[in-house]
Design a protein that fits this description.
- The radius of gyration is 24 Å and the shape is globular.
- The protein is 33% helix and 21% strand.
- The protein is α/β, with parallel strands linked by helices and 462 residues long.
- Strand 17, helix 12 and strand 18 form a beta-alpha-beta unit.
């Protein structure tokens, strides 16, 4: 944060200064008592298992100030600010600071693909502008104010990601960051355990427009059956992107070559050839959101498209190892993303060996989780996959759906991750392509690391 003092924080939060000086400069938040600096304010968050108020004294050995919701008086040289709710106080300061910044903001949400879409939008806009974007996965009620604290006056535009786990959170976050452009990627079944239906998930995601100004813009995935019906229903300029004829920014002639996706962008002002350094139709849609925003902001579309040839995201990673061509997509998983990743594996060109899917459970899918796994398996069974190996109780349903759809696909189920890892390490060969996909909590990243470590030990890692 720039030019922020304790006095500003008192104004933002309505808190009471128990001790310390109002002119103390604050540049950042700290939510970990072991981290921070002399110009950070510690935020003791009350969690489900731990109340961080008990760490305030330790935090003040590093940090320059603290919030508290549990003290009414204090004698200290460092500022203590009494507030009713420490997390809410941090959010209010984030809002206060964002309101000082005059730069435009793009906000991205959705059940699937929001991180990659945010990264692609940032990549495209960075072809001509200084872009600030969400760091890592800081898209939550805690993460968004932490992100806002790092905005600077040198930034020309911000691309921020917002997520949710229960009803009402998107509205709170979008009002905090006040976006000028809102993007919704896909309405899937993530968090359906909390929201009960995809219709409710759609309503929650579409709350992103509640933070827009009157002249704001909305970009929606026109191929999504829950988002396409919003055509003509919103009081903002609304643009659709995707593969369908109904889309304002449409991709045609899609083909995958050597790990890159080539396509033609079709839009009102003409066409543009695009080479994207990522694979799959789902990533084409993600790229279209960025290209559409670039067009509406008046950027040179040739330069914008060229930037995607060098795109490097944090999600899907591909490695050529001595053991196989490894596609590491282990960050997270939902039915939509698992089907999309399997389709990438299926459509890859130049694979001389087998196409092998190493899979694991998709978590947080609610009461119908078994059905979602079975239906995902059925969809994978329609693809050109040679082997599916999986672990996890729900993964049994995945493999059942695959076998019933296509008995010719070889399937293997393992009770533990270690068993799956050992089988893959001994049965995947040099000319094979291996996809690893499952929810982050299932730990498939350790299997990816095992393949990379195997190469490091032999000195063949590329």
């Amino acid at each position: 944060m720039e030019h922020m003092t304790i006095k500003d924080i008192l104004e933002a939060t309505g808190g009471k200064l128990l001790c310390g000086q109002e002119h103390t400069v604050i540049r950042d938040f700290s939510i970990d008592s072991r981290q921070g600096s002399y110009d950070s304010i510690f935020v003791p968050i009350i969690g489900e298992r731990v109340d961080a108020h008990k760490f305030i004294r330790d935090a003040l050995k590093i940090n320059g100030a603290t919030f508290t919701a549990q003290h009414s008086q204090m004698d200290d040289t460092k500022p203590w600010i009494r507030v009713d709710d420490t997390l809410e106080a941090m959010q209010k300061v984030g809002t206060f600071y964002r309101n000082r910044m005059k730069l435009p903001v793009v906000a991205v949400t959705g059940s699937v693909g929001k991180t990659t879409t945010r990264e692609m939008i940032a990549t495209v806009l960075a072809s001509e502008k200084k872009v600030f974007e969400t760091r890592g996965n800081q898209n939550s009620q805690v993460g968004v104010p932490l992100t806002l604290a790092h905005l600077s006056r040198e930034d020309e535009i911000a691309v921020l990601e917002i997520g949710m786990s229960e009803r009402g959170q998107i509205e709170k976050l979008t009002k905090m960051i006040r976006p000028n452009i809102a993007v919704v990627t896909v309405i899937g079944v993530s968090h359906i355990a909390q929201l009960k239906s995809q219709e409710n998930i759609c309503l929650e995601k579409m709350d992103i427009v509640k933070g827009l100004p009157e002249d704001g813009m909305v970009f929606l995935n026109g191929d999504d059956p829950f988002l396409a019906p919003y055509k003509g229903r919103l009081p903002y300029k609304t643009f659709f992107y995707g593969l369908g004829e109904n889309c304002d920014y449409r991709a045609e002639n899609i083909r995958i070559t050597r790990g890159q996706t080539h396509f033609t962008l079709v839009y009102a002002d003409g066409t543009q050839e695009v080479i994207l350094a990522a694979m799959g139709e789902h990533n084409v849609r993600n790229a279209l959101a960025g290209l559409g925003i670039a067009h509406q902001m008046g950027l040179d579309m040739r330069i914008a498209a060229a930037s995607l040839q060098h795109f490097s995201g944090q999600r899907q990673k591909m490695y050529r190892t001595s053991s196989c061509l490894l596609i590491d997509d282990t960050y997270n998983a939902s039915p939509d993303s698992m089907k999309a990743s399997a389709k990438v594996l299926s459509e890859m060109s130049g694979i001389e060996g087998r196409r092998i899917a190493g899979l694991a459970d998709m978590l947080e899918l609610g009461d119908d989780e078994a059905r979602y796994h079975y239906e995902t398996g059925q969809a994978i069974g329609k693809l050109s996959i040679d082997v599916a190996a999986a672990y996890g109780a729900l993964a049994k349903e995945l493999l059942k759906g695959i076998r019933e759809e296509n008995p010719d696909i070889e399937t293997h189920w393992f009770e533990t991750k270690e068993e799956l890892k050992e089988w893959l390490l001994h049965n995947v060969h040099e000319k094979d392509a291996l996809l690893l996909k499952g929810s982050n909590g299932m730990g498939l990243s350790t299997i990816s690391e095992a393949f990379l470590e195997k190469d490091r030990e032999t000195g063949t890692d590329e």
